[in-house]
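Job type: complex structure
Entries:
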Amino acid sequence: MRSPIIPRIPYSEVTPKHLYLNRREIMAGLGAAALSGVAGTSADATPLKAAKGPFGTNEIVTPKKDATTYNNFYEFGTDKSAPSANSGKFKPLPWTLRVDGLVHKPRDFDVGELISKTPLEERIYRMRCVEAWSMVIPWIGFPLATLLKQVEPLGSAKYVAFTSVYRPDEMPGQRGLFQVLEWPYVEGLRLDEAMHPLTILAVGLYGETLPNANGAPIRLVVPWKYGFKGIKSITRISFVEKQPPTTWNLMAPNEYGFYANVNPEVDHPRWSQATERRIGEDGFFSSGRRKTLPFNGYGEQVASLYAGMDLRKFY
Amino acid sequence: MHGRVQSPGKKVASRPNRWNRLPVWPIYVAGFIPAVWSFHLGATGGLGADPVKEFEHLLGLWTLRFLILTLLITPIRDITGASLLKYRRALGLLAFYYGAMHFSACMILDQALNMTMIIKDIVKRPFITIGMAALILMVPLAVTSNNLSIRKLGPKWNRLHRLIYVIAAGGALHFIMSVKAWPAEPVIYAGIIVTLIAWRGIRKPFLRWKRGPRSRVAAVSR
């Protein structure tokens, strides 16, 4: 049990694993993970080497334990603890990511190879859930744009559609008579949102490969949007002409829009979005509900994308 | 305290009661254990990543559980003949206390007594409005849960306490509306509560059928 009196050490003050593990060990670890084919659970996470990326924050990083055991990933169950508890059977590697649609060079990417060959960055981002809680997570990944440029999109491509995985054998939330959502989970971005330097594909967090619970082996992170836009365990990215369907919007169109930009002014029909609780920081007796910022504090970078748009209408 | 408390105006045909021998006070003691234990866990970092939300959630769940137990007393008697009526008041009051604690946790621990936010939420958000209404409706029932009120109000007491059906339905709705999509847990609670309310509609024919063909004939010829 954690005592509330002991101050937490900010993640930024902890020596990252990659500084004391040498490169050979890292490569050996990666190889072993790829061979065993069950990398990704917290127990056998592999250290990742990453350079410090831009857009950082000096806010206190959420304890790793909270970020990896308290989240939504309905494919493993609807409880916040379900993803970490029920994802042991999930096999994130080997993994193929297909990038196709309105492009010159459609391609299948081997994600294991992507992870080892792409220069990785650490991006410390705020994550704001539509349920009015938030975290600060040190992701490891690369800009989505770097991948998208490789397939040479056609001029007719206006949106990017993402598809997650359907594996009822490995994902208990996809089994049973009563299904909460339609599978596989789908998401989408406008092309300019997808190409924005803030938008990344994450392959790790806290200096290691992604745990299954957080969307191994590769997931989307769009920090100015509500967390549900960050589709996990991506199998396909398609360039399309029209706005693609998105899972939560299909489920309740009046509650979850396509854009889903963090916006304290536009409430969810059933709860306020004006404030949020920072997980792991605001304690039991010191309810530090903090004000939610427009675009989750990334307005300087992204507000111009929506100039002239009525954000109440396009929520 | 006076031995057996029965709702007035109703004759209860129960067996000589071996179920009624235990005193009532252990129900109160046991009933408060979840609240005390959850508070202890919350205060010592044992309620996970979002302890305030979890604490609120647990208090809300126990409110529904005690409402369900309160509503179970009648069907248990109808089906098995065992009357646990003596314990119903304690269960109903515990539901009220848990509802009040649930609301206090939201006000104090979650919203830190930010009254503008609290009032805005109650007025603006249907699920909070419904939860609040259910809690307020429990007040007259708690106030009239004593023997004196039962005697004084007579048949009116029964009518007043039928509010429990509205309260339980409101609680179930409040739970469903507070979550995204349709996860199993709130749906199961709602299913149980709907079944228990529906039982009130079918219990009379059930009891006639249970008493056997002779009473059925009697009922028809009456």
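Summary: The interface with chain A takes residues 42-53, 55, 109-112, 114, 117, 120-121, 124-127, 177-178, 180-185 of chain B (CB under 8 Å). DSSP finds ten helices and no strands in chain B.
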